Amino acid sequence: MSTPAIAKAPKIAFGDRFRLWWNTLSRPAQWGFGAPFVLLLALLPIIRPPGLTTTGTDFGAVMAQFGMYALIAIGLNVVVGQAGLLDLGYVGFYAIGAYTVGLLTSPDSPWNKTGPNGFLSDKWAWLAVAPIAVAVTALSGLLLGTPTLRLRGDYLAIVTLGFGEIVRLLADNLDSITGGGQGLSQIAYPRVGVSAKQPLGVFSAGNAGDPTGSWFTRHLNSGVWWFWLSLVLIVFVLMFVGNLERSRVGRAWVAIREDEDAAEIMGVPTFKFKLWAFVIGASIGGLSGALYAGQVQFVVPTNFNVINSVLFLCAVVLGGQGNKLGVILGAFIIVYLPNAFLGRTEIFGWQIDGNAIAQYKYLFFGLALMLLMIFRPQGLIPVRQKLLTYGRQIYQAMRRGREAQPEAVEVAK
Amino acid sequence: MTGPVLQGTMYLADPAVISFDIGKLARSFFQSTIDGLEWGSIYALVAVGYTLVYGVLRLINFAHSEIFMLGMFAQYAALMLMGFSPSGNAYNEGVLLTIFFLGVATVAAMLVSGGAAVGLERVAYRPLRKRNAPSLVFLITAIGADFVIQEFVHFVLPKLTGGKLGGLNAQQPIILVQQESVFKIGDGTVTNKTLIILIAAVLLAFATDYFVNRTKFGRGMRAVSQDPTTATLMGVSRERIIMLTFLIGGFLAGAAALLYTIKVPGGIIYSGGFLLGIKAFSAAVLGGIGNLRGALLGGLVLGVAENWGQYIFGTQWKDIVAFVLLVLVLMIRPTGILGESLGKARA
């Protein structure tokens, strides 16, 4: 069986070649290549390579936002990319995560548990509340999913859209709890790394780096710290989601996505696994919302408009539904491009109005969605699901086949 | 009217969260119903666009709300071309001229909306149909198109018109009809606006129903929605029927846009179609998506329910009532009140 696959080798595109190479690596070797890459990514906002760094806004803050969007994209990817359920109300989960943190730690909220009367310490309040936020969002995913996941495709999309709006309207209208349009301010954040220079800790918005410091500390502002925190969370979430993907759950999701009826007939309990996808996706969204609330220290309903759901969806579709690395790339594009244009007056020698271009982002992302759906509906880095179902064994079998047949390698060259 | 059973407050911990007062609805029952019917007529006309396209293509035309929004701008532009200035009135020059202005504005709104709907189909959906794309791809394209149209009016249109149209803020209203009370029913006042909106909506609804159920083109639409392949074999041009469907949906959205601006003169803004579109889609689902009469009924039911809810729970809960109703209907009876299917409407 392996010979025809190798005979086709010259036609394999660059991305597939990389994929093939990556999949033949042993797990420790993958970590060996992956860890320095993550480290390099973490150092990006410290090094701020010219050409990549942003001029109009702080690059550290942009990377922090990228971290949050990447988490969202990974979570939404579980729902949309892997299980094939179009969720247009994902921003609702993001909002629930953010508001849970806000309600429990903001002095404006009646349920504030910080300060002299609460049981949360100022220092660890955020860290203690973040898991609660994840749990609350998971529960809300369960509550929304149980009745609605019996619906299919388009209907589900609209119900989730309605849910996203309901969450925002509730936040807007329950004035006595959520502060309505005023929002909740002074939300807790991890107060660690307190020093004479940083009396409120390194995560506080007041940490603007040390302009007189070394190359390392000069750009080490709060944005960078939040980016690092989200990077750690992303690695954990990726491991979790990746393991799920390779397990029975992941195979069930693929089956549901490809053909729900066939999956049902083959004995996959589709409803159960759809609910799993929904709840896991929701909790990852909630985690990202908690990060957002902590970083901005302020939540307000207008930040959770439905338009954000579409932006999240754009990240997933742009990057490639179902591919974890793809959707992270998509999140990067969504966050980075508008910020890169901010405050820029020329690009490649052309005079441009960068601020206007950044402002038009929804126009361009809308166009990008339309063009992408016509010319490359699978996204920039598409997923290769057929081989994935066989897992690593097939790659290793192929590699063994190649070593056993050196003449086949000659054909490949 | 207010007893302990009719009034109440829901408490979550300390602060009062939601209070309801059924007595208030009872006291203004007719007024809320009249308001509801006005809104419902507008929803119904927009909902027809969603339902027809869904019936023929099995596609949620998410961008239909922006077709409606373009209609609002079109009638405004037409009025400006006729020499009215923003914040002006169009009703001071006699009844006949007012009707003429109304007519021109209606035609402008319907033509632009209809044209935009057909153009959207050509540019966005036809390439996908040629590629046999899955339905998720269609929906994502529709969402993309929605934002493109919205942002076009937000940013590009003001540049094209020298800041006269579009932009971040709502247009200064040109008031087409001066509100006058005509007669009273119970506690409710029927105004001339009410009559215009309701009569126009009923006429358009009957015309559409006649078109779909009695004419050759309508038979073609129903045939395609029942079975596209067989319809094609029987000599129905599928592409032409799809174009026609978008055109009718666009026409009705344009008419609805005009009625909406009569009701809410200050509502002409780039983002003004979005929420209304979602509600109109809810109305279509409520009545049974793909079912023409269902969409009309669903629109009215949604409009009335929303306004009753507004009187019971307070104005700020109006939108939530609509969305909760949508979620409830989809959970309990996903096929809607009259059941889905354009093809089976009248075989």
Fold and architecture overview:
- The complex is a heterodimer of chains A (413) and B (347).
- Chain A has helices at 2-7, 14-24, 27-47, 59-82, 90-105, 125-148, 153-173, 175-178, 215-218, 222-246, 248-258, 260-265, 270-296, 306-319, 324-341, 354-359, 361-375, 385-390, 392-404, 406-412; strands spanning 184-185, 298-299, 346-347, 350-351.
- With 413 residues, chain A is mainly alpha-helical.
- A two-stranded antiparallel sheet of chain A has the order 1-2.
- The longest helix of chain A has 27 residues, at 270-296.
- With 347 residues, chain B is mainly alpha-helical.
- Helix content of chain B is 67%, strand content 6%.
- Chain B has twelve helices and four strands.
- Chain B has helices at residues 22-27, 29-57, 64-81, 95-130, 135-160, 192-214, 216-226, 228-233, 238-263, 274-287, 292-313, 318-332, and strands at 7-11, 16-21, 181-185, 188-191.
- In chain B, the strands form two sheets. Chain B has a two-stranded antiparallel sheet with strand order 1-2. Chain B has a two-stranded antiparallel ribbon with strand order 3-4.
Pick out its properties.
heterodimer; A: 413 residues; mainly alpha; two-stranded antiparallel sheet; B: 347 residues; two-stranded antiparallel ribbon; 12 helices; 67% helix
